[in-house]
Amino acid sequence: MILTRFLSKSKPIVFVSLACYLSIHFWIDILPVTTVNIFAIIGKYFILLSLFFGINFIVKRNKINHTNAFAVFTFIALCTSLPEIYLNANVLIPAFFVLLGLRRLISLKTQIEPKKKIFDASLWFFAASLFQPYLVLLMLVVFYAVVEYTLYDAKNFFIPLIAWICGALFFTAFKLIQTDEWQFFYEAYTDFGWNNFRLIWQENPLFICIFSLFSLFILFSIFKIISGVALALKTSLNLILLSFIVVLVGWAFAEKTQIDALGIAVLPLSMLAGNVFQLKIKPVLKEVLFLLLLVLSLSSFLGSI
């Protein structure tokens, strides 16, 4: 079980190796795109690395995972399997905002400055929804966090609304300086319908198939184990689980959204997968899943060369 043994460690060499693998994928995929300027490429690269280290920071700091690299490996394997995730700035940037928002919500368990954290998370989710309007549904995750962590103070229920109103006012003011299109929010947040699943399946059958099976396995496993963990960890896992479901449902009902926007759901899925893999799953099954993700990633890599 070479791959499992390697990822079970938390030594710097493990994360350096994974970061190098991610970087090689990125530069091979991005260089043929000649229409993108160098500053945009560097910006995307640093955001991608921020997602990599951000996921590792969240799962370690909040004790969602133990000292292993399961979560970041899952993130890298799924991202590199579909390079459009990090080639599209309209996916990469909101994914970064979603990660920042999740970090603030999960840290509510410390009960340090809860109002500030709720406001910050709501504002980050608002910023993400400007790129992908269906992410407005992440407000449900914010209210769930308020109920779980700060139900003792009813005023906290108004903080997400205040944050979104402030964000909307600033954005509208900035928008009006540039154009006269004041109907942006109405047009963006009311454009819902069924996604074009047939076209998406035709373009990415392998990724959709493996992503769906892998997601079902992780969801089945997390539902099975979540009742037996400590209360603090249970609440954190519920937050991550809800965010994954919300993003997935939002993507399904976003009429004009392409397959690359599904990459935002990879963030919470990776955190959940990291928690599942560290449990007493049969070593053979764990190794098979890791190899399956690696093969999916390498197939995309070899196809880009």
Automatic annotation (TrEMBL):
Signal peptide: none annotated. Keywords: Membrane, Transmembrane, Transmembrane helix. The chain crosses the membrane at residues 12-30, 36-59, 66-83, 118-145, 157-177, 206-231, 237-254, 261-278, 284-303. This is Uncharacterized protein.
